[in-house]
Amino acid sequence: MGKLTVVGIGPGDYENMTVRADRALRECQVIVGYQVYVELVRERYPDKEFLTTPMTREADRCLMALEEARKGKDVAMVCSGDSGIYGMAGLVYQLRGESGEPDVSVIPGLTAACSGAALLGAPLTHDFAVVSLSDRLTPWEKIEKRLTAAAEADLSVVLYNPASHGRPDYLRRACEILLRTLPEDRPCGVARSIGREGESRMVLTLDGLKDFEADMFCTVFVGNSQTRIIAGELVTPRGYRNV
Amino acid sequence: MGKLTVVGIGPGDYENMTVRADRALRECQVIVGYQVYVELVRERYPDKEFLTTPMTREADRCLMALEEARKGKDVAMVCSGDSGIYGMAGLVYQLRGESGEPDVSVIPGLTAACSGAALLGAPLTHDFAVVSLSDRLTPWEKIEKRLTAAAEADLSVVLYNPASHGRPDYLRRACEILLRTLPEDRPCGVARSIGREGESRMVLTLDGLKDFEADMFCTVFVGNSQTRIIAGELVTPRGYRNV
Description:
The structure is a homodimer.
Chain A: E1 3-8, H1 19-27, E2 30-34, H2 35-42, E3 49-53, H3 58-70, E4 75-79, H4 89-96, E5 103-107, H5 112-120, E6 121-122, E7 128-132, H6 140-152, E8 156-160, H7 170-178, E9 187-192, E10 200-205, H8 206-210, E11 218-222, E12 228-230, E13 233-235
Parallel strand pairs in A: 1-4, 1-5, 2-3, 2-4, 6-13, 7-8
Antiparallel strand pairs in A: 8-11, 9-10, 9-11, 12-13
């Protein structure tokens, strides 16, 4: 029996991959993933067998990867960002079940909370919450409750999946919820297409963020009560005493 | 004038560094950091100048790094885990101030939320909060409020700095706060010395975690209401519907 390695490739460029992720992709026989992510790595590992599924077919993709490993192949499943944080590792373990076969290992990668924060300055130097605005698998009421709790506890907040074609106004709705607790001038930031062509960043207020037209390539950062803008960088101090 | 690059080296081993972090350390002239972290990289980059300060002397370390860059050196400041998440990037920007000089860039690295989760299974497939239990720079009341908010909003929780010599009982105190909201059998995990010699992991319940003797090498994971143990792995499903 082969083995399945779930690989977080980071934001998408080779530079932001770990040495270990690169090694796993070099050593495997088959690379499985969502079409867009497979395209990010295809050129660098040209001698592999590639298997892809479209977006929203995550379970099919995991079952395909497990099946290839059971047939004797060494399989790497690529995930954008981290392999675990909103990644496929959990679903792979769920679908593998209690048998413990085939052998599965998880290689972490840079999630957008790390890579986007570095692009914007240092907004996550202190405690924070990570919340996805996608309600495809989570009731919106739960998302709303989490945003409110984070704001009331003075956590910085990272918003994943702030918008898509089907829900263009979710970032506005999230900002309106946060603005019940947080001031309009709270420093915020948007990192877009991190590590890919057209990478960009914007530092703005929460009020400005409400009207920002995010898309699926954006990761959004909302500062805590101490966050400020220093020489254009979004910076959250380490603590609540002086440097 | 030289430049300062703040480099997240990940958990500590070369394998978990990014290609970009490795390149920055190869290309710099001076490596600055906390003694323990500098030791993690000294062997691989032997021809560098090394400057270290002890723990708790973070501001001195940042000022030293900025000064070396102002003197014309290309400086890399190493941080364990990510350069931003509880790292030095924020303090560097604070101490550099509004001048914008010297040039500073931030290279992200794998934070323990990513690397520890991968070791334990996939506990962070859904929304989560990251909270440090160190009250050196944060009032305990604020930490307590954040733990309660995270538990009430059904966020998975990652606890950084769960204990140290000076505060051996903080993890117990944190568990007692969480147990006001969460059940005793909530699945949890501890990742210790991730990517270093003696790396280990433990999956246990929240009640068991309360009596666990954590140290400064541990990162602690508390699942959400959906988290379960599958074939020994700590797994949080992606959503609240069926696979």
